[in-house]
Design a protein that fits this description.
By secondary structure, this protein is mainly α. It has six helices and two strands. Helix 1 runs antiparallel to helix 6, helix 3 packs antiparallel against helix 6 and helix 4 packs across helix 6. The longest helix is centred in the C-terminal third of the chain and has 26 residues. The model has no long low-confidence stretch (mean pLDDT about 90).
């Protein structure tokens, strides 16, 4: 594995789209950044929650890894403890009608970014044009 590949993958993990930007794929970088940020913010705006390792159960740990896939979005939001834009706690409002949708959107943002890290790997290694 090339050093360039590792650097691109780390950028992609930290900031959605940054790995593609590093590899010179500006259009993909902008598109993926917008999609992932939109999904993440929409998820929290719909009273969704972010999974953590503090949650009970084995599947919750997998969901925590998926949520963390959003990179700095996840860690900044967790560090703040709340979302100032909407004023809700990170745990979401489970009584809200949109709680499940919001949680699914926020989790999907992280999972999608993890898939994009694999895409960055393929591009950096020359497996994908």
């Amino acid at each position: 594995m090339k050093g360039r590949t590792i650097t691109a993958m780390l950028f992609a993990l930290l900031v959605p789209g940054a790995g593609h930007l590093y590899l010179g794929r500006r259009g993909r970088a902008a598109t993926f950044f917008i999609i992932i940020v939109f999904l993440f913010i929409a998820g929290l705006g719909l009273d969704g929650r972010l999974y953590t390792f503090d949650d009970q159960g084995g599947l919750a740990a997998l969901a925590a890894i998926g949520s963390m896939g959003s990179g700095v979005l996840y860690f900044i939001t967790r560090g703040l403890g709340y979302v100032p834009l909407f004023g809700y706690e990170i745990g979401g409002d489970y009584k809200s009608m949109t709680f499940e949708y919001g949680t699914a959107f926020a989790l999907t943002a992280g999972l999608m970014n993890l898939l994009l890290i694999v895409d960055v790997f393929d591009i950096a290694e020359g497996r994908k044009p």
